Amino acid sequence: MSTTPAPGSGSAAAPPAASQREAQKARTRRALLDAALDLLEHQSLSSLGLREITRAVGVSPAAFYRHFRDVADLGVALVDEALDGLRIVIRAGLAERSTDEERIDHAVEAIAEHVRAHPGHVRFLVRERHGGVAPVRRAIGAQLDRFAEEVAHVLVQDAESEGWSPEDLRMLAEIYVDHMVMTASSFLQAAQGEGPEEAAVARTARRQLRLVSLGRRHWTTAGERDG
């Protein structure tokens, strides 16, 4: 007599052992990243030890090496997490909104929301952008360069960009990206009770972006006079 469960009987085959191992591996990797982020609240990555992270998670150093080559490699993974989501939101906002005011409002609110949702990632990014761990510094620089390229690709489609050189468009994109990081840092300080409150940070960020937008409209003429 067959012992195969009847369809819909409520019995289900156990997940394959390989799937269970992959799920456990993903959970351990996530736990290592989260523990490192918590530990980095009050210290820099250069002072964080591998054993400190594994002790917080309750795994052996050998388990750490199944996920990351070293602490710097873990830091690079945190860089990707810190910037990927924000890049997607900002890029979509630039592409979907046509007026400067709409873009400015969207960008400032998106940054504020990202800081509220991911303060640890923002703190890590701001601190390590010029920190002492070279691979992480390079990873942040590469991600911000990629972000600037994406922003420039959107800006070139604007009517205001007619006559602009690729170099000038890239310069403008870098200004926007640098401003994004600066604004995120200011929102983080506000959340920590340091410096101006969030509403004041948002007002200042909008005014600064309006100034950049105004300068953009007159840049080509100014450049021709300078030439």
Give the fraction of residues assigned to helices.
Answer: over 70%
Q: What share of residues are in beta strands?
A: under 5%
Identify the overall geometry: elongated
User: Which structural class is indicated by helix and strand composition?
Assistant: mainly alpha
Number of helices: 9
How many strand elements?
0
Give the overall average pLDDT: 88
Rounded radius of gyration (Å): 23 Å
- Largest sheet: number of strands, sense, barrel closure: none
Q: Could you give the order of the helices and strands?
A: HHHHHHHHH
Low-pLDDT parts are 1-7
How does this structure look, described?
The chain is an all-alpha fold and 227 residues long. The protein has nine helices and no strands. The model is unreliable at 1-7 (pLDDT under 50).
Strands, helices and their partners?
Elements: H1 17-39, H2 50-57, H3 61-64, H4 71-96, H5 100-117, H6 119-128, H7 134-155, H8 166-191, H9 198-226
Q: Main attributes?
A:
227 residues, 73% helix, single chain, mainly alpha
Please summarize what this structure is:
This protein is mainly alpha-helical and 227 residues long.
